[in-house]
Amino acid sequence: MRRIARACGFLAILALAATASADEIEVREVALRSVDEGLALDADFEFELSPRLAEVVANGVPLYFRVDFELTRPRWYWFDDRAASRQMHLRLSYHALSRQYRLSTGPLQQSFATLEEALKVLKRVRNWLVVDRGASLAAADYEAAVRMRLDGALLPKPFQLSALTDRDLQLESPWRRFIMRASR
Asked: What does the alpha-carbon distance between residue 38 and residue 56 come to, in Å, rounded to a whole number?
């Protein structure tokens, strides 16, 4: 009886360790606010790179992160109406010659002395225009959703194959959904 209790305790500890080591991005704070150009999103994410991912980027392989945003209006009589959908691509890389980490989105680049500094900026999305002013939003409740993930499709081919089975190369958040009320 005592051995069974010990075995169950050991399995419980292993299960907790497995869930603790499972790399997942957590969406901490999300705010959608009105600006002159339309609606802007601010979001804070929380995650740690696995030692394998930190080693991969330190060896010069860029990591591509993708932030997805969707705004839908639920309808009881038909499929939900998708009012807006946006994606932001972020590239985290290390340049051995300058010994700096670079974070880029589109043509914009920032350089950082350490990986921690680069990740601090990567985890904070600010003033991202997700809905243009010209978009016609009905005066109704909308469901907004945001998530961040490591885009394995943009990794080099050998890493893409490894990412299918290796949990250390997977990093993703579930959709964080919240209600937004559009007014006229």
From this structure: 38
Is there a domain that residue 124 lies in? yes
Q: Which domain holds residue 42?
A: 21-181
pTM: 0.80
User: Over the stretch 5-51, which tens digit does the pLDDT of each residue have?
Assistant: 443 343 333 344 333 344 699 999 999 999 999 999 999 999 999 89
| DSSP notation for 54-76 | HHHHHTT--EEEEEEEEEEE--S
Write the pLDDT tens digit of every residue in 92-144.
999 999 999 999 998 999 999 999 999 999 999 999 999 998 877 777 889 99
Q: 73 in a domain, yes or no?
A: yes
Q: Assess if residue 64 is contained within a domain.
A: yes
One-letter identity of residue 164: L
* 83 vs 182: CA distance, rounded Å: 11
Return d(Cα 152, Cα 9) in angstroms, integer.
Answer: 36
Residue 85 lies in a domain: yes
Number of domains in the chain: 1
Residue type, 53: L
Three-state DSSP at 52 gives helix
